[in-house]
Amino acid sequence: MTDDLSASLQAAAEVLRAATDVTLLAHVNPDADALGSALALGLALRRLGKTVRVSFGAPEEVPETLRDLDAAGLLVPATEVPRSPEVLVALDTGSVGRLGPLADRLGTAGQVVVLDHHVSNPGFGTVNVVDVEAEATALVVLRLLDVLGVELDEPVARCVYAGLVTDTRSFRHARPATHEVAARLLAAGVDGEAVARPLMDSHPFGYLGMLAKVLARASLDVAAVGGRGFVHAVVTLEDAAGMRPEEVESVVDLVRTTAEAEVAAVLKELRPSYWSVSLRAVSAVDVREVAQLLGGGGHRLAAGFTAEGDAAVVLEKLRGALEAVGSKALG
Ligand code: AMP
Ligand code: MN
Ligand code: MN
């Protein structure tokens, strides 16, 4: 860990120790890293006697598979986030826009602590702990808990594990030290399979029918990205009817298995003609750069952006950005 990171961790711990009321925010459409990180820190701060709430800008519903992490009932709807929070903590949120409708609280909060692992994070807090080496924000939170001297009990460890197991794709992308963190979490009582299965391997039967439709329309362009291959699929509102966000989000995990493609994309229709796009790369193309050209962000091998319009138009824009970045990767 760099000196800068140690210093910013100490600064974050000082702000939190001095606080009486802390509001923790995950990014919009929160995943297990965002909410797991927020809930882990929230549980710890509650134990230190703080008033704590956890929220996120959108959607209104908490993803079903993440509700179990909220052992102490810390989650509140976005409408219950104070106008001027004493201390605001933004977790796993690579840019201001990812706070969605709650981004305005950055201007009214007394202090803003940013805990993140996105290389593109501009450091929009008064204290910024951005560890780009960390495979998950949950690791940054665990470091902070250690600085705060909070005991790592099972409910806290479970939240950290949830973020870690998902962002590392079941520890495939994990340094040796990160495996050691996993061992520590298991030793704290986490049941790894019980946490991971609902998050990654469990869907209602209707999922199979949705997949059959969506995957049948998937399309492969082997010549794209300088011959490295591009595969994509589209999940319309009609396809997603009756499905949870969890089912829609997991489509990219199947599409990305296409051996002929370096880059995979899934267009997910959130409301009519408004798309959230998931990008994945195997190893050679930096899809964060692609996403950033289109107003989004993310990591080198997993990124995303949102776009308006017909799916065909969004795809054309995506192909343009892919060629711009792909030719650089090859050149
Ligand atoms: P997803 O495909 O939704 O699982 O997202 C993959 C990664 O891309 C996330 O970890 C985020 O860092 C990032 N990301 C996704 N959507 C956006 C967006 N609209 N703007 C910025 N970053 C995004
Ligand atoms: Mn995330
Ligand atoms: Mn993350």
Overview of this protein structure:
The protein is an alpha/beta fold. It folds into 2 domains: 3-200, inorganic pyrophosphatase (n-terminal core) (Alpha-Beta Complex), CATH 3.90.1640.10; 206-329, Diaminopimelate Epimerase, Chain A, domain 1 (Roll). 43% of the residues lie in helices and 19% in strands. It contains 15 helices and 11 strands. The strands form 2 sheets. The chain has a 6-stranded mixed sheet with strand order 6-7-8-9-11-10. It has a 5-stranded parallel sheet with strand order 2-1-3-4-5. Helix 2 packs parallel to helix 5 (137-148). The longest helix has 20 residues, at 311-330. The protein is globular and about 55 Å long. The protein starts with a helix and ends with a helix. The structure holds adenosine monophosphate (AMP) and manganese (II) ion (2 copies). One manganese (II) ion binds next to loops.
| Shape descriptor | globular
CATH architectural grouping of the largest domain: Alpha-Beta Complex
Q: Tell me the Rg in angstroms.
A: 20 Å
Biggest sheet statistics: 6 strands, mixed
How many β strands by DSSP? 11
What distance separates the N and C termini? Answer: 33 Å
Give the overall pLDDT as a whole number. 97
The ligands found in this model are:
adenosine monophosphate, manganese (II) ion
Q: Strand order, biggest sheet?
A: 6-7-8-9-11-10
Uncertain stretches of 5 or more adjacent residues:
none
Indicate how many domains the architecture comprises.
Answer: 2
Strand content: 15-25%
Q: How many helices does DSSP assign?
A: 15
Q: Spell the H/E element sequence.
A: HEHEHEHEEHHHHHEHEHHHEEHEEH
